[in-house]
Amino acid sequence: MRETMLIFHFIGLSMGLGSSFAYMFLGFVSSKMPKGERKAFFVNVSIISKMANIGLIILLISGLYLITPFWKVLGGQPFLIAKLILVLILIGLVLAINSLMKKSKTADIDLYAGKIETLGKVIMLTTLIILILAVTIFH
């Protein structure tokens, strides 16, 4: 069962990390578009936020299962504690970018495009740090 959950965990990670790369690059590309095209572009690529959400849910479910043996020794695992804190921060960042994506559908996209691009970069960085910590902890 552990191997199955590990596979799901990596699938969720791929979806989440892929979404953050996509947000970053799409934000950059959209900043070069004329204002009229930008809104339609963001509406068309909003499916990425669903992929990020699904990836995060898969990560959380599989992660809760995979971390079960480590709860007893959590106090002596500072990298694991840091990873868990970053996962909580990641959840907040994903919720924030989802909120901006929803707002951008009904408002002036220029108000949100830069914030979406910046949050995409922060999400990507956070996810990469979580990945590095996971490899360090569980190698």
In short:
By secondary structure, the protein is mainly alpha-helical. The protein has one domain. It has helices at 2-31, 35-44, 47-67, 78-106, 110-138.
What is the element layout, followed by pairings?
Elements: H1 2-31, H2 35-44, H3 47-67, H4 78-106, H5 110-138
Please give a structural write-up.
This protein has helices at residues 2-31, 35-44, 47-67, 78-106, 110-138. Helix 1 (2-31) runs antiparallel to helix 5 and helix 4 (78-106) packs antiparallel against helix 5 (110-138). It has one domain. The two termini are 19 Å apart. The mean pLDDT is 85. It is built from five helices and no strands. 29% of the residues are buried. It is mainly alpha-helical.
Rough outline: elongated
Q: What share of the residues does DSSP label as strand, in percent? A: under 5%
Order of helices and strands: HHHHH
Biggest beta sheet summary: none
The end-to-end distance, rounded to whole angstroms, is: 19 Å
**Unreliable residue stretches:** none
Evaluate the radius of gyration: 17 Å
Arithmetic mean pLDDT: 85
Structural class designation: mainly alpha
The total strand number stands at 0
- Fraction of residues in helices? over 70%
Number of individual domains: 1
- Number of helical segments with 4 or more residues: 5
